[in-house]
């Protein structure tokens, strides 16, 4: 996909208003065949794609990924809406957003990124009146065996293998203790729970101490600010108890910025985020201003992180993936959806999924099916150390 750098720095307010307008008005597009024909003549997609992401506070990389594909194909072709920050208690609001977009018969495919709780219910309700709708899900939160039966294709980072690779990376960085922050809602998800167990077992085999630390749920009473405040205050406590050779990991996106900041301030180890990306938490945590010229340029952003990490005396103790996993996933799923709707490829074809991920990432990507599910894929990209 052609990168359009201005998408990265598009004003949050403007995009939010656009998303709100789509949600409330149905987008205002006409859907007759003449319009579709004209769109094709203009080089635009002759159909639309629905796309739901979190807000900037809950999942900035997915939000920026949405901006990138909107810049590529236009807001009249990519119907972007956001799910509520408090999606656990506002599932009906999320489902209503999906139903509203799906009511437009020109929308032929829908991408859910992330696939928060309620995604299966939303897919089921849409299929009652749009059985032809194709659903593509990034980072499903619901049971993998069940969501695979609802969606056409699901993709997510290989969180089971990452249970080993993240611990191994922390060990290479000098970690003697590994602190894992999470909360009951996340630990009720099969893959997150299994990854934590793998991390604990891997720590034991590596001679490292594994510490499970309960953190406030960002969708709970304290909200995201309360969860972030807890992380900022707890990391120094853990470092005081276990020393600076302590690696930190959190299962929640909203916790990444305070986790990176506090790890850097206390000269601890930050091997990788829950959703690895140079843009996930690092710029805000380290005070990096991304210019319009460098927006979307992962090489330039990685270099800026390298410099800030070095200035803080933390070289070799902080890491991530070389690209934004959220942006890569959305760009790849958008291309996969387009080709599937146009009949160029099967939507759940492993080779096609791998090809689109590699094209978006501009890097080698390992893609494997989850257990026996041939439409649920897990992928890995090699880490970078700053």
The CATH class label of the largest domain is: Alpha Beta
User: Rg to the nearest angstrom?
Assistant: 20 Å
- Kindly report the CATH topology of the largest domain: Rossmann fold
Average pLDDT, rounded to a whole number, is: 89
Fold and architecture overview:
With 386 residues, the chain is an alpha/beta fold. The chain has two domains: 5-157 and 326-385, 3-Layer(aba) Sandwich (Rossmann fold); 159-322, 3-Layer(aba) Sandwich (Rossmann fold), CATH 3.40.50.11390. 47% of the residues lie in helices and 17% in strands. It contains 15 helices and twelve strands. It has helices spanning 12-25, 33-41, 56-73, 91-102, 119-129, 144-150, 159-172, 184-187, 190-205, 223-242, 256-265, 282-286, 298-311, 325-341, 350-361, and strands at 48-53, 78-82, 107-115, 134-140, 153-157, 177-182, 209-214, 246-250, 319-320, 366-370, 373-380, 384-385. The strands form three sheets. Strands 2-1-3-4-5-11-10 form a seven-stranded mixed β-sheet, sandwiched between helices. The radius of gyration is 20 Å and the shape is globular. It starts with 11 loop residues before the first helix and ends with a strand.
